[in-house]
Amino acid sequence: MQVQLIDQRETISPLVDIQRLQRYCQQLLGLLGLSEKTLSLILLSDAQMAQYNQQFRAKTGATNVLSFPAGFPDEAFAATHNDLGDVLIAVETAAHEADEQGCSLMERLVQLSLHGLLHLIGYDHERSEEEALAMWDKEQSLLAQLFYTRRHTMPHLAVNVDHVATLRQAREAAEPDPVLAAALCELAGARGVVVHLREDRRHIQDRDVRLLRQTVKTRLNLEMAVTKEMLALAMEIKPDLVTLVPEKPQELTTEGGLDVVAQQKKIAAAVNKLRKAGMLVSLFIDAEAEQIQAAAEIGASHVELHTGHYCSAAGTAEEEKEFVVLRNAAELAAASNLLVNAGHGLDYRNTDRIAALPEIDELSIGHAIVSRAVLVGMEQAVREMLAVIQQAK
After folding, report:
1. Which of 115, 119, 163, 196 is catalytic?
2. Are 118 and 265 members of one domain?
3. Is 163 tagged catalytic?
4. Which among 48, 80, 106, 238 is least buried, having the fewest CB atoms inside 10 angstroms?
5. What is the pLDDT of residue 86?
6. What phi and psi values does residue 252 have, to the nearest 5 degrees?
7. Strand (E) positions, the chain?
8. 215 and 113 housed in the same domain
């Protein structure tokens, strides 16, 4: 089974995760019983597609997809007995259609790939209404089989224990201890522990981070501002992952993502220093294309998408809008070879949709779990959140 995928666009925008699209098309061939066949999938700009449309169909402008069976026309395409032919897709048109339909670009590309593939094996929606309905039914059946399958692994859960320290610092006492809380989170199944060491030390203390480095068995994620003091501390402690975040003195919690575009030189220097010391580096950013692209350009290994706007959305329509923004951002980040984390404001009611996004590697959740732990205990609170993530579809 072979899918040859060629991106012929002069400007590779919007970004497409070539390997992921290739895997989807290979799965489609398998579902159609065509595992021994070869398919060529060619991504074009609208201008390039318009040229093909004019040359072979005598029509003006771009269409979303064109199919050419193997050997047609003979002088343009070489064929072997296993070749199905070529499917051409106009990516810009596909992106516009994805926005209109409220789906991701990848989903639309897969839909168009399947549509073109069905044309190659004899389906035709233009000959009659009966054949159009048959082709539509076949498309929907195959897409359901393709996208219904749950991801092979669920996202990891990393628990932020800052609010345990907040309660401790309210009395300047020794308890509750965020280090002990972190151990209970791991016992309950969390795959990581997150702490934000703020410059004003309002909750997590240096002592906590040092002890956590010695005791965390999974992965320690240190959130911190891009300052000389914090960089020096990270170089000393060497957490498994450093997440660079914006920080304002009077904010109750982090209010938005890091502006990587505006501070690219400063952040790039910090990322380079940390990665040379053997640490992975994530950037906490808003779900914006320019921030994702800047993060990839300066060498970050991860991004953590700020989910606060989705979590605080007023009403179903606004929530849906923010979810689509996050979904598209996760897809773009994965296509940019970044590992994708997500967090801020996630709770037991809104986490499932984010957890179901196949690009999400880890969810960072703190306040909701600590709040629940006050009532049912830390281990139970973590297990309940893991259940939410496991059931996400």
Report:
1. 196
2. no
3. no
4. 80
5. 93
6. -70, -40
7. 2-7, 38-44, 65-69, 83-90, 156-160, 192-196, 220-224, 241-244, 280-285, 302-306, 339-343, 360-365
8. no
Residue 46 in this model has a pLDDT that exceeds 90: yes
Sign of CA dihedral 49, 55, 58, 60: positive
Check 163, 203, 309, 344 and give the catalytic one: 344
Q: Which position among 107, 186, 223, 322 bears the catalytic label?
A: 223
Distance CA 22, CA 334 (A): 15
Residue 173, pLDDT score: 93
Q: Please confirm, yes or no, whether 379 is among the known catalytic residues.
A: no
Verify whether residue 223 is a known catalytic residue: yes
Residues 294 and 385 in one domain: yes
For residue 78, what pLDDT band results from cuts at 50, 70 and 90? very low
Tens digit of each residue's pLDDT (9 = 90 or more) over 211-255: 999 999 999 999 999 999 999 999 999 999 999 999 877 766 767
Q: How far apart are CA 104 and CA 117, in angstroms?
A: 20
Number of domain units in the chain: 2
* Same domain flag for 135 and 196: no
Q: Residue 72 belongs to what domain range? A: 2-148
Using alpha carbons, select from 172, 173, 106 the residue that is nearest to residue 143.
Answer: 106
List phi, psi (to 5°) of 171: -110, 0
Tokens coding 310: 């989705």
Does residue 82 or residue 310 have the better pLDDT? 310
What residues have CB less than 8 Å from 16, skipping those under 6 apart? 7, 43, 91, 105, 106, 109, 335
- What backbone torsions phi and psi does residue 154 show, to the nearest 5 degrees? -80, 160
What tens digit of pLDDT does each residue of 133-183 get? 999 999 998 888 877 554 456 799 999 999 999 999 999 999 999 999 999
